[in-house]
Fold each of these.
Amino acid sequence: MRASDLLRLELIGIDEKTGFPIFGDSRLIVFGMTALARLQNDLIGSLGWEKTSVIYTRYGHEYGMTMALRMAELYDFDSPEELIRGGCGLQTMTGLATTSIDAIRIDMAKKQLTFSGSWSNSFEATLWLSQFPPNDHPVCCIVSGMLSGFASAVMQTEVLVRETTCQAEGNPFCRFEGRTLTEWGLDPEEVERIQSVVRIDEELSRLQQQLDQAREDLARQNAEIKVLKSLTFRAEPNREIIHRSASMEKLLVTAEKVAATRATILIQGESGTGKEVLARFIHRRSEGGGKPFLAINCAALPPSLLESELFGHVKGSFTGAHSDKRGLFVEAGEGTLFLDEVGEIPQEMQAKLLRAIQEKEVRQVGGLRDIPVQARIIAATNRDLQEMVRDGRFREDLYYRLAVFPLFIPPLRERREDILLLARNFLARLHPEHPGFSPKAVRLMEAHGWPGNVRELENWVEYAAVMSAGKRILPEHFPLTTAPAPKDPLVSLTVDLPPLDELERRYTKLVLERTTGNRTEAAKILGIGISTLWRHLKEEKPTDGKADKTGDRT
Ligand SMILES: [Zn+2]
């Protein structure tokens, strides 16, 4: 039997029993082109062309293999070449395309096949052009896949039919070339990989897993960032503590002496006085000055996290303990561990902290053995620990362990002579070229109560430097504040040395303040007449009022 002997009407008919169209003796399903266009559109729309073309090719290949086996069952062809030609005829009979072969060379013994030909009116090219403009690549995937599958079944080795030009590209017809993979020089595994279909549900579940993992990582990283933020690993600029007050000088001399020992130090002072700055000052002058300085804010972490930060934990000792952690006591080595806001440590942790300081060993959360530690401990608090001890909120034994050497940083309002020095220093650090503060701004700073201490001053200077836009800083450049005025307006005399008339005015105001605004009594104390007193007050030029809450009470 030859391919040219095939008769469409013998192959394709109607099953008398069911009324179904049949090919040979198997059921044939007829789809309309329009419906296929919808299918194609939806496939491309949801998967993209690349995946769609792989699915089409695989479908065509499967169809071609089945058809080849069916044809070989139905008829006894003269030669494999005739069978392959029969497959091409089948493409035409089933409406895929009008297929013709130009050349064919076949060697069954060597399993070699090379053939080429053309398709005209391929249903895929027609379908494409009915929906889309001419394309930049061939589209006849089912047609070429069918021929690949058919020839592969005949040759019993993988044959790949490639479309070289396509009608959908604007050519008058499609052309193809078929060869075995060996003759194409292709690696069968590579072809298998390219033509494999990734299952969307599998891909989705893989992506979902990746997403879950990423979310988990992110949550863990966020937790770590939170912890890191509460620690202070940032390098402190190597600056000394700016001061000229006698109280600070005394404090620093003491601090230098105690730095040389390894005694535990308790730094007390209001918030913003620079307790960590002092701790670093001591650390730099201590024996372990080149070793790590680790700081932790004990108020910033919940008790469970605080324990594992300080003492470390063993992998798996609680949810989220993905690996062993050494803890700050161990990490600090022979350096310094700075425990800020130590007064906020919960009671159940106080016993563990006491043990770490007293016995110089720690046990990791979930750990079984004690690890020796050497770090020097500097603790700090803005609370009155002794009062907390009296109230039973802080362990007495821990207090005495910590306060081996207590240091107290005086609040800024008690060392006003440091204010201008500090302010100039902050300004120079932020804006080296800045022309500085006007006398009234200086007075305002020195008069302010500084409840937030040095940190508040630093914020003010930073704010004013911006507001002044490179000009001298005036009182109105400072942030508005409701802070109480100082008790003694003459304090600033030690710094800004005002002219005599201003001095008169300030002193007059002070006396008026003391006499609760009684001018007669004030004049008596000052040894001047009421009219002179009146003149002193009137001469004052109005400021923005912030510095002068002690002002005229007439
Ligand atoms: Zn084509």
Amino acid sequence: MSAREPAAATGLDEFAALVRGIAPGSPRSGPAPARLPVCRFWPAALEAASRAVAAPLAAALAPLMPALAWTQNPNYRRQPPEPTFLDRYGYSVIAGPPDGPPALARAPALALGVLLLGPRTHYPRHAHPAVEVYYTLTDGEWWRDEGPWRPQPPGTAIVHAPHVRHAMRAGDAPLLAVYLWRGDLATHARLTS
Ligand SMILES: [Fe+2]
């Protein structure tokens, strides 16, 4: 599905409106939200997203950035797929269960967040039991099941069924995508062969 299709564009507008609705009702207090090295790519990623079909969603995400807490899969922190990966990868939960990473809004049955990869970063094959829908905000290459790698423009919805192997990689610019998980939210992704 592409957001260039009218139905998908309508869905995107509704999605963006929902994301905009999160910010006003979620004031944060206490310590500043966690940042990661990958956050240095946020401005470039958001700027690229703002020039593409996903601009409404990018505009909805922009004001959330000061409140976003960034985190990394503990499986990768223990055993990075390659030495520079943790310097160039991170995600932030916008809405998620209370026992998960810090989120702007609580949602017991789903997780909604953003994934950010630095330029030329390869997030290798991995899998998890949750059902996942990604919505791309920038260009990137995506791989699923048996492949092949496919370039996916901004505004593409990508669905990963439970336990399906998948991977993504950024080109010369950062890769930014919104993700949605449902099902087993507690089991982190693991790298696969
Ligand atoms: Fe995934």
Amino acid sequence: MGRPATRDVVCYHCRGRIEVPRSARTVTCPCCFKGLLLDDLVVSTSGWPGKLETCGVVRINKRARTVTRFVQAGDGVEVQGVLEAKVCTSGGVVVRRGGHVKGDIVATSITVEPGATLEGLSLCIRPLPSASRQ
Ligand SMILES: [Zn+2]
């Protein structure tokens, strides 16, 4: 059996659950007609200019210092550098050794490695909404 040709993602604009081709990198949400990024976002330099939004994973690399208003990631967030933002993900947040997160976090799980820093957080860890919301 091969992998299914589609995957389910949640639109980060309207929260609609949509099915997208597994090979797609961007898609237009059929509910709100806004563009969605499906690829992972990897930030490896400081000074990211805007919001970080994707249905994939947001990763803040070592030595990147990212100060932004909002991070929305469908599949999770991994921080090896510095992230100052409100983080909202339907996946987990992982803060690696040397990583530093300042801001509120909404996620389904959080992993903080020894040597990582969390600062001034309000945390909301909650299970995924049921997948069978049809
Ligand atoms: Zn939408």
Amino acid sequence: MSRRPLYEKLLSLHKQNRSSFHTPGHKYGTFFPAEMMLLDFTELPETDALFEANGVILSAEQKLSELYSTAASCISAGGCSLAIQAMLRTAKDRGGKLLCARNAHRSAVNAMALLDIQPVWLYPKGSSHYTGRIQPEDIAAAFREHPDITACYLTSPSYYGEMCDIGAIARICHNHDAILLVDNAHGSHLAFMEQNCHPIALGADMTACSLHKTMPVLTGGAVLNIRTPGLAQHAKAYMSLFASTSPSYLIMSSIDLCVDYMLYNGGKADYLRCEYTVAALKKLAADRGVPQAEGLCDPLRLTLNTAACGIAGEDKQQSFFDDFKIDCEFCDGENAVLICTPFNREKDFQRLRSAILQLQPADKPYAPFPALSAPPCVMSLREAVLSPFETVPVHQAAGRIAADTVCPCPPGVPLIMPGEKITSAAAALLSRRNITSLHVVAGHK
Ligand SMILES: Cc1ncc(COP(=O)(O)O)c(C=O)c1O
């Protein structure tokens, strides 16, 4: 075994010169200056402190706030997960119920378990377990059924690029004196599209944005954006509850460089150009009859249903894209998800064009994965996550209670939530998704 197994693997991947259509958004290019590696500082009198910022970090956050037109923007070096934790802590503060779309990322589910929030789940209507979006009328109906909802938590865009009608949903929430919290992990760039469709611009009260996914920021760099001034007061305290006391200055300063690029160095024009490039790729796929994510969608996300073109199953999808030296963000067996940014080279887009030109609808239809109906919930998230657990093979899981989120990652959207009873249909779906074992609550059979 190599003496530096991780480092050398990364180096060898780098040398393969493949086309990255996955995170991070900077695509390993030359966005960051070489001297940056010399700047791995820590908290010193001159370098400020993230959770008591009143110096250079505060100034960097004020620039972020200018970029996203927020009341306040708080840097996270602990990914979007940290911003999500802070949003949920804010929801906890309000009392009442939290309405939550069931396609939430597992970071949100874990935070709810730790904070002892048992949400009212709302199932997106879609073709599979992870896809689909919540409609404004679903939110309105939930308020009629649960008048004590005080906060609503949505994921938009989804991993597949599907966006909710945030403007309409925000109006419904505000009419009921509830706040709208959006996991916008995949949508930091939406403010820079021809039509600004960032959830903050559309009325969300708070958003958690994974800058590193679609912007030129080091992995782990994210922002908690706050539109409603009253919600800013405790935000830092809520973040520090979950965060490391040693946030990376490399990550934080990469955010500073990104903001400078977007505000003063042509970033907005580059993102617009990228939008047109991806629109042309989407049109090329549509002209060839390749099914894609439908409806209101992230302009920079390409989701191609290769299964409908006879390329079904993760292995087959991987090998199809391997032929073009393309790395997808995610192949789920049916859809290939590709993240495009201005940091993809012309060569990358050329490879993608060539791949799309090889796709065409198959004569034989394929059988899509079935959507799971809501499994019975027999224990709260918190009780299940904090219970003693045992690991069992999937074929012995039916009838047991999940002690953890059960999800393929990506996309990190639980098929089963902690506290839910695993049905035989759910166990069969987990096997189909290549999950072989899971944690169940010990002693409950
Ligand atoms: C929808 C969604 N939310 C939250 C996260 C967590 O983001 P981060 O990895 O930046 O903590 C992810 C990660 O993939 C995600 O897909």
